[in-house]
From TrEMBL:
<feature type="signal peptide">
    <location>
        <begin position="1"/>
        <end position="15"/>
    </location>
</feature>
<dbReference type="InterPro" id="IPR015943">
    <property type="entry name" value="WD40/YVTN_repeat-like_dom_sf"/>
</dbReference>
<keyword id="KW-0732">Signal</keyword>
<protein>
    <submittedName>
        <fullName>Uncharacterized protein</fullName>
    </submittedName>
</protein>
Amino acid sequence: MLPLLFLMVIGSVYTERENCSYLYDGMPYDRAAILTIKGLPTNLVFNPLNKDLHFTLIDLDSLQNDNVQTKMEQYFLRENQPIKINNINGQAAAVDVKKQKVYIASDDGLHFLNASDKAQFLSMKDEDIVQLFKPLHSDDLYAVFFPENEVYVIDVQRNEKRKVENVPCAFILAVDDRNNIYYECDSKYVKVMLKGFSEPVEFVGIAKNSARAIAVDNSSRVVLATNDGLYLLKPDNIIPTKLMDLDYVPSGITFDEENFYVSTNGIIYKYSECEYE
């Protein structure tokens, strides 16, 4: 049974904007709650091809119970309506813009979203995939495999996977346009594995175990969401640049050109850049 959804239509959402009172990278933004839902929406991914917003919904009761497996469901938000992908135990999504395909990670391998909005098996049968990341600049598809949370690049055509060296594990993952890999592993600190190097570099100034989500914007900038705000991560500077303060703990982030989405417990927010005449 679908969770009870409290939806806000576009008209009412936009009338409740907060008068450009949020600053992101020095620019004023509006904020609107585009969805309220029971659970924790995470793994946000925006599809620029059709404007769908994909997310994984985590059941908090099962998350906090060590005796049961955490329950997760895969959704996408289309025209302000949440749609559940109900034929799979979805755990993450990634969009391949070049191939016009949406990949879905599950506890039974890699799937894709077909024309009927159903998950269809593609590769990695019986593998438990918990994270996906698809860079815009390359054909690589990065995946994190449970239980060791090791990072691999999947070759979908050959049904093969290649381990990413020098990245021991990842709970959040992003790759920039220079193939530098940003991740957070058991140390609870965010690091970057620079292309061609053998040892990762740790970012400073971010509190231990405070990283919650990571994404790459349309300018190939890596943005980290933490307990106290959004930070810009650069491969040549170990000190992050704070872009925005947050008054809640985030669980996901994704970008749509100059606008972006951030989720937290029970809510997905859309931040829209203010335009002045």
